[in-house]
Design brief:
Helix content is about 45%, strand content about 15%. It is built from nine helices and seven strands; from the N terminus they run E-H-E-H-E-H-E-H-E-H-H-E-H-H-H-E. Strands 3-2-1-4-5-6-7 form a seven-stranded parallel β-sheet, with helices on both faces.
Length: about 260
Amino acid sequence: MDLGIKGRWALVCAASKGLGRGCAEALADEGVNLVITARGAEALEATAAALRARPGAGDVRTVAGDITTPEGRAAALAACPQVDILINNAGGPPPGDFRQWDRETWLKAVDANMLTPIELIKATVDAMAERGFGRIVNITSGAVKAPIDVLGLSNGARSGLTGFIAGLARQPALASRNVTINNLLPGAFDTDRLRVTMTGTAQKTGQSIEQVAEARKALAPARRFGTSKEFGAMCAFICSAQAGFLTGQNLLLDGGAYPGTF
């Protein structure tokens, strides 16, 4: 299927690895021009080189910096001639017990996982509406649907973003102008973050990482972890011309782990 987005410009945050890279790869395969960001310049440039080598890839520009800072956002936006597609993504806050978190810890989590996406949307959404096309995808977490007790910082910050998007996406000034805003909720995907989490669990329980991994896989009917490639493919479809009637939704990719009807 031709997704109808060749030649568009996309800003993909935290795209040097993991799910962000999967999204960038899928968009590159559709001929979308990319501005990709990450804090680590070396990994970012390696990813950019790999993206440029993909058949049909368009322009690929890099901006090394922290997207959660005003300076990082300004640099990323300045590198993109126009933002037709915005993929909001940032590393999740660390696990722990809420009794150990002070105000600064909470503010850092909210700033990265709620306010940063909102600031990027604020900077781009009106121009999207004026041009009559816009696709915004916020990579959040399956914990928005089924909170994980040790991920309270993520549960809180990402749920705040979810509530904000629920109202914004349904504004007629955006939806009637072919601007869609959706949230993509990953479950257990084979990423560095998942491996860090499993390593922590292994150290805490005395199990091997392999044992922890098998137990985690068993939580989903698919009996496996997701891949960045299939996550990226889903993201690319949400950004497609064909997905113009899809907005304000929380799309859960978790191999069937969430047991609810709704």
